[in-house]
Specification:
The structure is a homodimer of 147-residue chains.
Chain A: H1 11-32, H2 37-48, E1 52-53, H3 54-60, H4 65-77, E2 81-85, E3 93-97, H5 99-119, H6 127-145
Antiparallel strand pairs in A: 1-3, 2-3
The first copy, chain A, binds a DNA duplex (30 and 30 nucleotides) through residues 20, 23-24, 27, 36-39, 53-55, 63-71, 73-74, 89-93.
Chain lengths: 147, 147
DNA sequence: TAATTTTGTATCGTGAACGATATAAATATA
DNA sequence: TATATTTATATCGTTCACGATACAAAATTA
């Protein structure tokens, strides 16, 4: 029995579980907007800056285009984004929000922060703990990205 | 532009990204053992205690049986576990390690901790930071599990 | 400018996750 | 003990992730 191979000693398992469970907590809230969690991430990217090529969106989310392309195709079917070939560089697909996609921002603002606050209100972590957690996660993310 | 909807302010996005990137870092190492990351998690559960029903494995990993069942079926095809109906309760499938599955423990011990140490050696986090991070993640996990 | 390389996106196949549903076995209840 | 309920697992459909590959457009080089 190797200590290093104990599930309870794995940071990665905690990250994996925490990530899945938080995403699960988002799901019922996002369902009201008829979107999934990865689609919500794409929307946040576009709400910050509308009209971006697929590559920029993928890079911002640390995903590959072969993940993002079908995601965007589904979002286009839902009528929340449109994709148009760039005239400057015909290889690029420029992704833009539709009116419906833009309208979701207000709806998200009204439901998501409050809803997630409710989900996590019994969590003993304080404001500073969350800030600290964010810093540590950023360290790990940067380390692996630059490896 | 709502601060609450900025990608950079999302704890969840950090968890999601950190989890994916760490799993990616595991992948080349696990490939030497011809297993995936979720399969490695199942193996850790079985190395701790061989011969468990599907439910117990799923519960330990905070997964549903509809995720674990196909995972186990693939592992059975690979010849690292076997599933046998319990004679006490014929509904239960008891999952056990094969000789090959048991042998993987030694191989995992020899390659994974060293390999991951190498991957993360440039990470500025100290031993105590990792311990702290683990505690905070456990808080979040427990909060959501008990909601 | 012709040939080569790089870049941006898409397609394909596999393995998760997970909601919804199905089914048989075990347990509880009438 | 017959019926209803619960439990353990499996199946199905959809949506990610992601490695491998394909292909056209752009950039580079010969």
């Amino acid at each position: 029995m190797y200590e290093e191979l104990r599930l309870d000693n794995q940071l990665c398992f905690r990250l994996y579980t925490a990530s899945r469970l938080i995403t699960q907590a988002y799901t019922p809230i996002l369902k009201q907007l008829n979107i999934t969690y990865p689609q919500y991430l794409v929307l946040m990217v576009l709400w910050e800056q509308d009209g971006q090529p697929v590559n920029d969106i993928a890079h911002r989310l640390c995903l590959e285009t072969n993940t993002v392309t079908p995601l965007l195709q589904r979002m286009e079917k839902l009528g929340i984004v449109v994709r148009k070939r760039s005239k400057v560089d015909k290889r690029q697909q420029i992704v833009s929000l539709t009116r419906k996609g833009k309208a979701l921002e207000q709806q998200a603002f009204e439901t998501i922060p409050a809803g997630m606050g409710e989900e996590l209100k019994t969590c003993p972590l304080k404001q500073e703990d969350y800030a600290h957690l964010a810093e540590e996660l950023d360290s790990i993310i940067e380390t692996i990205k630059n490896r």
